[in-house]
C-alpha cells in the first residue's frame, strides 16, 4: 500500500502542479533526491477528481482511499465521502446512509477495523466547533453516531484522534473560550481524553511522565503498539511551531519525548503522515520564515515539499554505524564501499537513480607529520698543518 500512497499523492499534485523534484529524507537512513517525472500513473478522467479542498481526512482500506469532508473558500465545507480505487485509478462519489455528520473541516480521522472514525471539526455553516464522533462503515457505506457519555471533551478542530486497541485517544486541536461557539478567542487544550469503545464513555487521561507537551493544532499522530507517536503542530497564542517528537503510552499514560538519530525535519504544521510497517512517513507541512521586502523584515509561511521517513526499528547495520559515529571512530580506515554506505546513512550524498551527484563528506585521513630532520653533525675543523722547520 506504500507505493499506492505515493501514487495517490502524485495524482493529486498532478491535478494542480507540473512535475517537481521531491526530496526524501530518512530519519535513520538515507536521503534521496527523486523526480516525480519518473512516476507514470495510468490516465484518469480529471472530471472524476473531487474539488480542491483542505482540512479533509483520508483513510485507506482494502486498497482504496476514503476521503471525507474538508472545505474551500468557494464551496465552503463538504459532507461527502469520495473513494479512490488505487488499482483502477478512478474516483467514485459514494452514496451513504445512516446518521452521519454535517459538513465540516478540521476533523480528526482514524481506522477501526472496517470503519472510518471521524471526531470533531468545525461546521462552517453553523459557525460552531463539534465534539461528536461518528463511524463510517466502508463495506456498507453507512454512518453511525457514538453516544456521548462521561467526561466532557471540549469541542475542537485540527486535532488528532487515534484508535489504539479499544480506545480513541484525542489530543491537541484548537478550541474556543466559549466552545462550541466560535468567537475568535482561541484556546489550545493540552489534556488527553480517550473514548472507551467497549463501554461507550469518555475519560480524561491522567498526566504522567517527564514530558508535558503544549497544546497545539495541525499536528499528526500514528498508533505504535499500545502507544501514540505525535509530531509537530502550531500554537497561535504562543506563536510557536513545534518539531518535537513524543510518545504517549495508553496503558500507563506516561509521555516521553523521543530523540531520533539523523536529519530531523524542522518545526512545522499541516503535515501529511502515514505509518507503513515500522516506518513513519512525514511529508510536507508549513513553517515560518523571515524575509526582507522593501527594507522590512516580514514573517511569512513557507510550504515544504520534502519527505522524511522515521525508522521505528533500526536495522543492525544502522545501529552499528550509530555506535561508530558516537565513538568518533576513524571511518577512513574502513573499505571505501563501507565509507560510502555510512555517508548515505548520514544523509550526506544526494543520489539520482544510481549516479552520485554530490561527493560524500567522509573524514579525510590525517596527514602523517613529516619526520623532523636529524641535525647534521658539524664538521670537525681541519687540524692546522705543522710548519716545516
Automatic annotation (TrEMBL):
Residues 357-389 are annotated as: Disordered. GO terms for molecular function: chromatin binding. Residues 362-389 have a biased composition (Basic and acidic residues). This is Kelch domain-containing protein 3. Signal peptide: none annotated. It holds the Pfam family Kelch_KLHDC2_KLHL20_DRC7. It comes from Geodia barretti. One of its GO terms (cellular component) is cytoplasm.
Amino acid at each position: 500500500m506504500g507505493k499506492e500512497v505515493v501514487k495517490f499523492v502524485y495524482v493529486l499534485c498532478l491535478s494542480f502542479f507540473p512535475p517537481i523534484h521531491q526530496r526524501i529524507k530518512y530519519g535513520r537512513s538515507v536521503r534521496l533526491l527523486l523526480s516525480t517525472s519518473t512516476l507514470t500513473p495510468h490516465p484518469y478522467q480529471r472530471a472524476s477528481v473531487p474539488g480542491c479542498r483542505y482540512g479533509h481526512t483520508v483513510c485507506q482500506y482494502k486498497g482504496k482511499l476514503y476521503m471525507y469532508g474538508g472545505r474551500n473558500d468557494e464551496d465552503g465545507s463538504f459532507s461527502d465521502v469520495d473513494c479512490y480505487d488505487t488499482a483502477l485509478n478512478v474516483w467514485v462519489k459514494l452514496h451513504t446512509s445512516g446518521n452521519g455528520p454535517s459538513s465540516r473541516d478540521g476533523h480528526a480521522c482514524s481506522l477501526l477495523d472496517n470503519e472510518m472514525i471521524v471526531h470533531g471539526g468545525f461546521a462552517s455553516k453553523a459557525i460552531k466547533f463539534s465534539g461528536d464522533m461518528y463511524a463510517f462503515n466502508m463495506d456498507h457505506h453507512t454512518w453511525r453516531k457514538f453516544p456521548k457519555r462521561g467526561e466532557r471533551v471540549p469541542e475542537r478542530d485540527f486535532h488528532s484522534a487515534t484508535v489504539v486497541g479499544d480506545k480513541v485517544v484525542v489530543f491537541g486541536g484548537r478550541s474556543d473560550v466559549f466552545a462550541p461557539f466560535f468567537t475568535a478567542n482561541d484556546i489550545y487544550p493540552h489534556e488527553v481524553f480517550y473514548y472507551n469503545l467497549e463501554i461507550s464513555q469518555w475519560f480524561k487521561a491522567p498526566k504522567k511522565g517527564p514530558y508535558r507537551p503544549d497544546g497545539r493544532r495541525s499536528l499528526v499522530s500514528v498508533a505504535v503498539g499500545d502507544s501514540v507517536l505525535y509530531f509537530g503542530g502550531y500554537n497561535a497564542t504562543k506563536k510557536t511551531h513545534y518539531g518535537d517528537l513524543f510518545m504517549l503510552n495508553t496503558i500507563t499514560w506516561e509521555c516521553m519525548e523521543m530523540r531520533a538519530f539523523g536529519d530531523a525535519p524542522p518545526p512545522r504544521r499541516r503535515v501529511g503522515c502515514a505509518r507503513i510497517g515500522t516506518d513513519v512517513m512525514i511529508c510536507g507541512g508549513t513553517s515560518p520564515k523571515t524575509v526582507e521586502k522593501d527594507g522590512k523584515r516580514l514573517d511569512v509561511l513557507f510550504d515544504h515539499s520534502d519527505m522524511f521517513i522515521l525508522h521505528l526499528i533500526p536495522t543492525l547495520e544502522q545501529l552499528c554505524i550509530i555506535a561508530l559515529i558516537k565513538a568518533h571512530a576513524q571511518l577512513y580506515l574502513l573499505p571505501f564501499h563501507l565509507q560510502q554506505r555510512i555517508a548515505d546513512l548520514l544523509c550526506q550524498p544526494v543520489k539520482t537513480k544510481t549516479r552520485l551527484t554530490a561527493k560524500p563528506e567522509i573524514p579525510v585521513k590525517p596527514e602523517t607529520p613529516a619526520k623532523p630532520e636529524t641535525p647534521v653533525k658539524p664538521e670537525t675543523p681541519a687540524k692546522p698543518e705543522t710548519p716545516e722547520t
